[in-house]
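Notes from the 1:1 (GR / supervisor)

We went over the backlog. Supervisor wanted to see one worked example end to end before approving the batch request, so GR pasted a single chain during the call. The sequence is below; no edits were made to it. Supervisor asked that the structure be written out right there so they could see what the output format looks like.
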Amino acid sequence: MLLNRLLSSLVFISIVLFAVFNSLVFKVAVIAIIILGLYEFFTMLENKGIRIYKYFGIGLGIVIPLSILFRFELTKRWELLFIVLTLLFLIMMQFKRRNTSGVIVDISTTLFGIMYVSWLFSFLIKIRSLSGGVALLGALLLITKLCDIGAYLVGSRFGRIPLMPRISPKKSVEGGVGGLLFSILGAMACQPFLQFTYFHLVFLGLAIGVLAQLGDLSESLLKRDCGVKDSGGLLPGLGGILDSIDSVLFTAPVFYFYISTICR
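Structure output shown during the call:
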């Protein structure tokens, strides 16, 4: 299991590093991860017995990153228009159902999946499009993943006090603290190319560390509700795509707004 985890991590990290510095690979990788993430999410819900419009949801999920990549904005508030149209289409698709039981759950979970996976992950594209975006994106991924690594290493070695046993029994308070320390150190290590003050770096590291662990716990909550250990089996030892990007889903939007509003 440890060998599989290490090999999968090396392969995944190599692809991520290549994608960060290569524009074409980055675009393809983001869209591919969104497709796979949505597929895993909707499959988990199908296994729970929820009637999901899987391929319709995946198709709409692809629209979000493509609209950002090609700078397509039908309106200045296109995200709101997109949500309204998606909701409208989902409701219209219910008219052909013979059994109306569970309609609200089916519509809500499909819309949630699109927002949770596609919209949140698409903020990586927005970050890379900023001035100095390659460095910013690299810093975000480094700080976020160092939090994951720190939480795992410290928790597996010193973990004694359960953090939230009903959601994720293996996570500990000590691991959570270790994750925060690693993310702060990671943020401070980014000072040469981010050129932020150390106050900003410590705050950024702390914020990303908290959000990364909330993202991890949130996905654990969803998996527990669906009765699965991993979102998929694409990455041996690590689980599925969602298991690898769950922390980034929460850190990317906040990082983008922090950089584009406070630090600019």
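Supervisor's comment: The radius of gyration is 19 Å.
Batch request approved.
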